[in-house]
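Worked example 3 (structure in, sequence out).
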């Protein structure tokens, strides 16, 4: 149980369900409820398939391509750092995408499961095991679904300003996690030489 909790927390920060809330609301505003529900189901299914597939096949793909976990941690950390800095400095990520495409891209991936979640999942497998990581990822995707289904009520409670503040704090934490990933990746690569 302790390993599941220890894997859950970094993945929670990487997924950022509360930070996704204003993005989800912005992307799905003016969309009727049945279509919004279909978007939620498609986004969760996309995120689930990508995350679980990567958990089981990620290291095999790395072996085929000659990539180490350290390499991926450095690359993923660099991308995460850029994403978090952009989120901190550039408000508003609204895009006009047809509703039938919203669920898979950009909500399912890269918003729910993107580089942060994939890299963090690999790190958690090494630190806490496959089972704990799988449960932590599934729990976080379930939590995102809960947040999305309760989006209208949560925005009323938090207010748009409150949701934005939480998103910025989470982006700052994501930047710190990105720096940690780069540091650990460098140490891992140096240790292999």
């Amino acid at each position: 149980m302790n390993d599941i909790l220890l894997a859950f927390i970094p993945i929670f920060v990487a997924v950022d369900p509360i930070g996704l809330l204003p993005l989800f609301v912005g992307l799905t505003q003016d969309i009727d409820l049945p279509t919004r529900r279909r978007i939620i189901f498609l986004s969760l299914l996309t995120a689930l398939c990508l995350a679980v597939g990567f958990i089981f096949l990620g290291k095999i793909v790395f072996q085929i391509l000659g990539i180490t976990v350290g390499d991926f941690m450095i690359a993923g950390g660099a991308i995460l750092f850029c994403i978090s800095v952009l989120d901190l400095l550039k408000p508003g990520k609204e895009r006009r995408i047809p509703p039938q495409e919203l669920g898979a891209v950009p909500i399912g991936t890269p918003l729910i499961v993107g580089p942060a979640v994939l890299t963090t999942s690999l790190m958690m497998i090494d630190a806490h095991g496959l089972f704990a990581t799988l449960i932590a990822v599934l729990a976080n995707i379930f939590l995102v679904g809960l947040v999305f289904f309760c989006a209208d009520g949560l925005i009323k409670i938090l207010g748009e300003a409150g949701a934005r503040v939480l998103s910025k704090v989470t982006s700052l934490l994501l930047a710190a996690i990105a720096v940690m990933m780069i540091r650990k990746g460098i140490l891992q690569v140096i240790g292999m030489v």
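Notes: Residues 2-192 form one domain. The helical segments are 2-15, 17-28, 33-65, 69-89, 99-112, 115-128, 130-149, 151-192.
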